[in-house]
Automatic annotation (TrEMBL):
The keyword Signal applies. It is found in: Cell envelope. PROSITE patterns: PROKAR_LIPOPROTEIN. This is ABC transporter substrate-binding protein. Residues 305-324 are annotated as: Disordered. The keyword Signal applies. It comes from Protaetiibacter mangrovi. Residues 1-22 form the signal peptide. Residues 40-297 form the Periplasmic binding protein domain. Gene3D superfamilies: 3.40.50.2300. Keywords: Signal. Belongs to the bacterial solute-binding protein 2 family. Its main location: other.
Length: 324
């Protein structure tokens, strides 16, 4: 009898253990440990200093010690690669997907596939044109306000002087570039600022340098002001401006967006004239959103992280304690 009872007890214990594993498997569906939340993060690439700081922030927050198993992909600034990465995460059966969408359009199909697979999606940084019932939440920045702040600085300092301005645009079709342009144009509307040209440098230093070289060949010293949608393109333009025998920050006034370390150093050194910050440190907010959506808690559909702006004196003061 004892043997039979022992056998039943053993079978019960095994069944209980199996049940326990299965329920834990539900939370770590993507192959994480029993309690880890498996997150697939589809990053745009590594196109700028801002991107590096954003990647670092998310990797630090989505760490194993914080309860996550992170599957990371950087898409080399190509949307088709980024969409392929998201499909791979769906096939792996991760618990949640985070995307920094390179461009606003083209996301409906893969976001629908994630929804059909029961995998919540969180957008960070840039956003998409797809319906917001295809993602759980978006945490990012007010790009239109950033552009408007840059444009207001130009208006306040140069309206009435018939100044000529060129623009280095961010990645074509990205919400950051589209909204910064909208805000900037709104701010300078009605002024006598003359926009000579506006082209994309794809948010990279090399892109900024090459497009600025073209602007200088075409317009030479007619250019009074440069507005670059990010610091990195502005930093690339510095090389072109000095190669043309002009003094950046003096012959050509420069306003940019991001406030990464190298941009703030250029501002403190007098090569830039004004920077509008775009905060890349979104990791903790993203990690908190992932935990909530995986737990089935309700979350806000969108959260905007506040920014600030800097002139040359403020950059000198802020530099020693800047976190990125
Ligand atoms: C803005 C971000 C932009 C930065 C660029 O949130 O998407 O992309 O301004 C980066 O530096 O490449």
């Amino acid at each position: 009898m004892k043997k039979i009872l022992a056998g039943v007890a053993l079978a019960g214990a095994v069944a209980l253990a199996m049940t326990g594993c299965a329920s834990d498997g539900g939370s770590g569906g993507g192959g994480g440990g029993d309690d880890l939340i498996t997150v697939g993060f589809a990053q745009t690439g590594s196109e700028s200093g801002w991107r590096s700081a954003n990647t670092e922030s998310l990797k630090t927050a989505l760490s194993e010690e914080n309860g996550f198993k992170l599957v990371f992909n950087a898409a080399d600034n190509k949307q088709e690669a980024q969409i392929a990465a998201v499909r791979s995460f769906i096939n792996q059966g991760v618990d949640a997907i985070v995307i920094a969408p390179i461009t606003v359009d083209g996301w409906d199909d893969v976001l629908t596939e994630a929804k059909d697979a029961g995998i919540p999606v969180i957008l960070e940084d840039r956003t998409v044109s797809a319906s917001d019932d295809l993602y759980a939440s978006w945490v990012g920045l007010d790009f239109e306000k950033e552009g408007e702040t840059a444009g207001t600085w130009v208006k306040d300092n140069f309206d009435g002087q018939a100044q000529n301005l060129v623009v280095l645009e961010g990645t074509t079709g990205s919400s950051a570039a589209l909204d910064r342009a909208t805000g900037f144009d709104k701010a300078i509307e009605g002024t006598d600022i003359n926009v000579l040209d506006s082209q994309t440098g794809d948010f990279t230093r090399d892109g900024g340098k090459k497009v600025m070289e073209g602007f200088l060949q075409k317009y030479g010293n007619q250019i009074n002001i440069l507005f670059a949608h990010n610091d990195d393109m502005g930093l690339g333009a510095l090389d072109a401006i000095t190669a043309a025998g002009l003094v950046p920050g003096q012959d050509i006034k420069i306003v940019t967006i991001d406030a990464v370390h190298d941009g703030m150093q250029a501002l403190a050194d007098g090569k830039f004239n004004y920077i509008v910050e775009c905060n890349p440190l979104l990791g903790e907010k993203v990690a908190d959103l992932v935990k909530k959506v995986v737990a089935g808690d309700s979350v806000e559909k969108r959260e905007i992280v506040p920014d600030q702006s800097f002139d040359q004196d403020q950059a000198k003061e802020a530099l020693p304690t800047r976190p990125y």
